[in-house]
User: Fold this.
Amino acid sequence: MNPSPDDSGANDRNRGLEAPAAPVISYNEVVLDHFLHPHNVGELAKADTDGFVVVGDSSCGDQMKLWISVRNQRIAKIAFQSFGCPGAIATSSMLTVLAEGRTIEEARLITDDDVVEALGGIPAKKRHCSLLGVQALQAVIDDWEKRGRAPPEQP
Amino acid sequence: MIYLDHNATTPLHPRAFEAMLPFLKELWANPSSPYRFGSQAKAAVEFGRGQIANCIGCKPSEVVFCSGGTESDNLALRGVVRALKSKGNHIVTTAIEHPAVLNTCKALENEGYRVTYLPVTEEGVVEMAALRASLCDGTILVTVMHANNETGVIQPVEEIATTTRARGVVFHTDAVQSAGKLDRKLAELGADLVTFSGHKLYGPRGVGVLYVREGTPLAPWMTGGTHEHGLRAGTENVAAIAGCAEAVTLAFEEAETEGHRLRSLRDRFELQVGAAIQAVRFNGSEAQRVPNTSNISFQDVDGESVVLGLDVRGICVSTGSACSTDDPEPSHVLRAMGLSPRAAQGSVRFSLGRDTCAADLDATVSALKDTVAHLRRVSSIRGDLE
Assistant:
């Protein structure tokens, strides 16, 4: 770092802009990647939507919307939108990656620990962010069940 | 790297660094020692005290050195209420103070003092009518910051000083964020006690100043030696004092020209942001502000996410004050100004400094535009600013 406005300072600045330094703050590169390039962002078309939910975290003001499309008891498509900190965005994104293609039964078993583990860890004070996504997934499956789709077949 | 967080801290100015060196290398004696080697260190402390007195417009005997802004605030608040314990137990402050004042007030509440937290307007200015109405016979101290650390909004301290003087109430102002940023002699603000700190104006960390107007009732709250007129025990940090004094001198020499430069850069930056990004709110911008600070709420996005988005592009900014990065609660300052929790959560502070140039801000506007657009694509909220 060279904060003085001389030539070397200007060069440092340009380098800093071209090549993002990673890892940033205490987020690892996987978290950072899911923050910068989240998977499954957006919403599903109404015809595709078999479950939809809005959940909020009253402790920090974060909010998440989650859509699923279910085919043959499997989450065929999943999409999310999140308002919140980098931890909220990255955990939401990873949650959709873990849930996509899973059966409803499998998706029901995804925990916040699974999300954190898949991200390779998250700062301790951001752990609560991962709960919101898991909560949303359970709620969106509840919504799908409520819409009258057949519950999973018993073996 | 583009550093736009000068309200958090500033780089040490080369002149301040040079001023410190002799006391780190050769003249490392204890200023209280009885031989000439000690006297040389003592002379440096007194020289620094004189420099600062000259800059802020007071007598050297009215300058007390301590470890930083937080300690200066603690000395002022705890020192006054201790000295005036028999006179009353009521303290008046505002809802937007820095935690150094706010949490000291809360601690004093636990000790039995009564504290009034004054509201502020939508622009973040304390209301004089509320202040006047809050004063009562038991009021022993009013403490209102000069410039807010998050918004840069300047409080009417001269007017408050006139009021408190007429009522015979001691008045303290935390001027950590205004010292050296305004072409104004701090002792002439009219407050009885003024806090400021070295590292916010290109001096070293670990040194703060409390201006104590002659005759102000103040009891030390730390026990120890008789340093600093008996108000602050502990061996003087000679190098830091010398560096701070040099930095203060420099800041006040350049306050006018640097203030003009920063104000025009800041105003241009805000115009550019307003043109490039829709649905933004410039918090406190209708009020008088220190020239380097811009606090912006971006609709539908979280401030921390904006900070990280800029960080990966090599730009350092922050949400609110640096002290609250571990605190998930949205800014108490913006909430006091009436912003919704979500709008407060979407706010980012840009604080310019000596090294900031127009190109830095152009690059920041461009990075900000991309970051906010990205976060709005991801966001589950549409249109929550107002």
About this structure: Residues 48 and 142 of chain A are 17 Å apart (CA to CA).
